[in-house]
């Protein structure tokens, strides 16, 4: 047994850690190993979907082989522990890119499928699962199931976004998309309030593939921020990727993100980017993964760790609901530096438990200050509940069961596909086993 935590560093409970390294023996390991277990990729989820305190973790990062690639169609078959970074670095020079990618490329293919992750282009290309053509799962009763949009669709819909609870994904076939090179044409536009944010989002969605915004959640007034948009470019030259990486070498004794640091930090960030606003060509790693060069930045929050609170609310009530959440956060003065606001496209979720649904999503980090932080979350939950929205399991460590059940109406259907030999901190907390 050894202590394992996830990205939010809220816990470090002992786990029985079993590495999976050989595709052909995964079935035997999950059948014969101590139960219950759950798959664990890079542990880049913030809460407990990838944890199983006092139980088994099947760590997949050595299942990292590429199996086949068709350079005419862009179809890639690989093992589930391959990192998105390795796909990008290998295939972009060959003219292919992952169609959908989250804000870090240090995640595994299995983790990206199990959380059905989204990127900045949901309004155009949906979520990660929309580009998976087939996948294979190993169940703890020895069954091997291959499924996809064209075969065993019900298993596919349960597994995409199924937070690892239907079986261990061993390999997947992914459709890459053609790209001319690693650069994007980008534009940064400061905005002064939420109505301006929604106008920019509406105006940008037809012509810009990638859109996202940073919002200053502590600014007085109506939510100023920076709207960023980008398109892949045919340009043959552009800035090189950042090669220098920095790290947070030691854990500070208390969170460096606090009431004293946050307001001036947010104001300075806004001013700097306001000044840098305009068009420029960016390398895809800087545009998609701005934090990947700052290693272990999660340590900044000190020994108690931090939460991320990510919700999505329907578009028709979106502005009022986001405004209400920002008001609560500003009032609590417990805000977040990493505050991201983004619209999702009008597409129904692919997976039974996939998070993205039509609407607007707000994601914020909060240092763990115990009861005070939980009280704030209860007030935010009330806004999400009233707006008929939902929270993102990949980021969650504390949502109440009624909010989970109300947010995910296909939950009862999903339960039928659960593997009884799999359990996680999240599943015990919210599904009872
Ligand atoms: C800086 C940062 C930015 C992020 N930005 C985004 C974003 O923009 N959009 C977004 O959607 N998410 C985002 N995330 C969250 C992250 O993309 C997801 O949590 C991702 O799923 C983590 O992948 P992982 O390999 O670390 O999986 P883990 O966190 O280890 O596991 C995630 C889930 O997948 C399951 N799982 C892992 N491997 C397998 C497998 N082989 N078979 C079955 N189940 C498996 C686990 O059981 C768990 O339920 C971000 C995270 C960070 C740290």
- The average pLDDT score comes to 93
Described by its quaternary structure, the protein is single chain
Care to count the β-strands? 21
Q: So what's the overall shape?
A: globular
Unreliable runs: none
Bound molecules: flavin-adenine dinucleotide
Strand order of the largest sheet: 16-12-14-13-19-20-18-21
Distance between the termini: 21 Å
**Could you say which structural class the secondary elements and strand pairing correspond to?**
alpha+beta
Task: Calculate Rg over CA atoms.
Answer: 21 Å
Give me the secondary-structure topology:
Layout: E1 2-4, E2 13-19, H1 26-32, E3 37-40, E4 56-59, E5 66-70, E6 75-79, H2 84-91, E7 96-97, H3 109-114, H4 122-125, E8 132-138, E9 144-147, H5 153-159, E10 168-175, E11 177-178, E12 183-191, H6 194-204, E13 210-215, E14 225-232, E15 246-247, H7 259-275, E16 278-283, H8 284-288, E17 294-295, E18 306-313, H9 315-332, E19 339-344, E20 359-367, H10 371-386, E21 390-391, H11 401-407, H12 411-415, H13 425-431
């Amino acid at each position: 047994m050894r202590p394992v935590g996830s990205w939010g560093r809220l816990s470090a409970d002992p786990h029985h850690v079993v590495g999976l390294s050989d595709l052909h023996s995964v079935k035997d390991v999950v059948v014969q190993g101590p139960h219950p277990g759950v798959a664990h990729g890079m542990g880049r989820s913030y809460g407990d979907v990838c944890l199983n305190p006092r139980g088994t973790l099947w760590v997949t990062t050595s299942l990292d082989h590429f199996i086949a690639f068709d350079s005419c169609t862009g179809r890639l078959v690989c093992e589930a522990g391959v990192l998105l970074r390795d796909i990008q670095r290998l295939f972009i020079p060959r003219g292919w890119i992952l169609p959908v990618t989250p804000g870090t490329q240090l995640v595994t293919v299995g983790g990206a499928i199990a959380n059905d992750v989204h990127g900045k282009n949901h309004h155009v290309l949906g979520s990660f699962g929309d580009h998976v053509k087939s996948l294979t799962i190993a169940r703890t009763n020895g069954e091997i199931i291959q499924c996809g949009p064209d075969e065993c669709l019900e298993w596919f819909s349960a597994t995409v976004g199924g937070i690892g609870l239907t079986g261990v994904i061993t390999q997947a076939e992914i459709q890459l998309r053609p790209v001319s090179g690693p650069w994007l044409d980008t534009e940064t536009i400061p905005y002064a309030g939420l109505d301006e944010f929604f106008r920019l989002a509406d105006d940008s969605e037809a012509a810009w593939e990638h859109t996202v915004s940073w919002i200053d959640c502590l600014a007085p007034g109506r939510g100023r921020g920076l709207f960023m948009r980008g398109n892949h470019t045919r340009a043959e030259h552009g800035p090189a990727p950042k090669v220098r990486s920095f790290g947070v070498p030691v854990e500070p004794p208390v969170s460096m993100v606090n009431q004293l640091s946050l307001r001036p930090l947010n104001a300075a960030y806004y001013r700097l980017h306001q000044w840098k606003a305009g068009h420029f060509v960016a390398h895809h790693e800087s545009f998609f993964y701005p934090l990947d060069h700052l290693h272990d930045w999660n340590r900044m929050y000190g020994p108690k760790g931090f939460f991320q609170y990510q919700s999505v609310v329907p578009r028709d009530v979106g502005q009022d609901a986001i405004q209400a959440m920002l008001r609560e956060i500003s009032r609590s003065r417990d805000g977040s530096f990493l505050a991201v606001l983004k619209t999702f496209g009008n597409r129904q979720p692919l997976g039974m438990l996939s998070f993205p649904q039509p609407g607007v999503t707000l994601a914020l980090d909060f240092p763990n200050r115990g009861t005070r932080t939980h009280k704030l979350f209860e007030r935010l939950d009330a806004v999400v509940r009233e707006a008929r929205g939902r929270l993102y399991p990949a980021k969650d460590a504390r949502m109440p069961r009624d909010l989970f059940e109300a947010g995910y109406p296909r939950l009862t259907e999903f339960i039928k596909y659960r593997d009884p030999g799999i359990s996680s901190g999240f599943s015990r907390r919210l599904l009872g086993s």
